[in-house]
Amino acid sequence: MVGTQPITIQQAIELALRNNSQLRQAQFELEQSQAALRETQAAALPTVDATAGFNQIGREQTTFPQNPLTGETGDAEVIYTDSTALGADLEVRYPIYTSGRIPALLRASRGQIRLRQLEVERQTEQLILDTSLDYYDLQQASAQVKIFTANLAQSERSLQDAQALERAGVGTRFDVLQAEVDVANARQELTQQLSQLDIARRQLAQRLNVAQTVNLEAADTVEVAGVWDLSLGESIVQAYKNRAELEQQLIQREIAQDQRRAALAQLGPQVSFIGGFGLDNDLDRDPGFIYNYRLGLNVQMSLYDGGLARAQADQRESDISIAEAEFENIRDQIRFQVEQAYSQLDANFANIQTTALAVEQAAEALRLARLRFQAGVGTQTDVLRQQTALAQSQVNNIRAILDYNRAITQLQRQISNYPEGFLNEQP
Prior knowledge:
Layout: E1 4-7, H1 9-19, H2 21-43, E2 47-63, E3 77-97, H3 101-168, H4 173-208, E4 215-218, H5 232-242, H6 244-265, E5 270-282, E6 290-300, H7 308-374, H8 380-415
Parallel strand pairs: 1-4
Antiparallel strand pairs: 2-3, 3-5, 5-6
Helix pairs in contact: 1-3, 2-3, 3-4, 3-6, 3-8, 5-7, 6-7, 7-8
């Protein structure tokens, strides 16, 4: 993407989902949790170890033989010995009973995967909301630049009318000065709006993670995004059912419960099966192999661990309470956010109709004021006042439409998967 690039809101969302680094990080963390589950599953499976060795050992020993008859010690003798051995062993270990520790760890690992899936979904939904709001900011900034560009043209036209009337001798210098001030103010407003437009472009470009040299333009026209067909009560219920944040806290509690069980299970008996089979051959003595095997059950139980397992269980108990408290906090936040967005939706829907009518009335009032001024029966002040009223009514209308769209987008975020989900099929 180079130069000036028109973009629709759907294209912006797709780019954000593809390019956002935080979302990619959440997906990598999900893959990490899946690998951690495989690691935990491996602890519940038998392990098989095989070893083989070939050893050759040499030894030098110096002795002093003694005459058995005389008891005299003879000269030193050096004796060399060596041996060559070949061996192989196979050992199997299998945890038969762990007092529930491994099953609890498996449930906790599966919970971590679901937690990461929900985090990917949460970040996706939030990214869609943020991108949509940035896009509406770009639409508003672009529309206001057009409005204030037109307002500047109107002010310059009024200045030309005032100058023409002054030259004809039917106008005053005061009217010209007043029109010049209005042109200066309109130019200042336009400069400010151009700055806001540049900021909105940069913000959206950053959100989409595209080159800062790209000038993004909103390709969609400013219009009402749709109709929200759920009541406030239905919206709150759907938010409680669908929000990933609430399910995350429920799963956090379940993970803490399983980790607590796993910690306490360390105090219980641990039973494992051990089996082994070996082959040995002393190549210097016998070319044949000698085999051996062993089968056994090992029972291990911690009699005293200094309170380690209990301390770990107490920590997980605190995690359970934290998850429950956070669930209540998030639930209250969600309800407030839904109510706030729903109230803004109703207010802006009413404002759309009111401001649209105001635009029509302001445009007609400006036309009449200009005709009256050109006919010499009106004042320049009336024209300038109507120009300002028209620009403000147009800004109010654009803001009402986009605030309505923002409220719908906020409600879609609060409801999470409404009207369609983006990732997980699970609720």
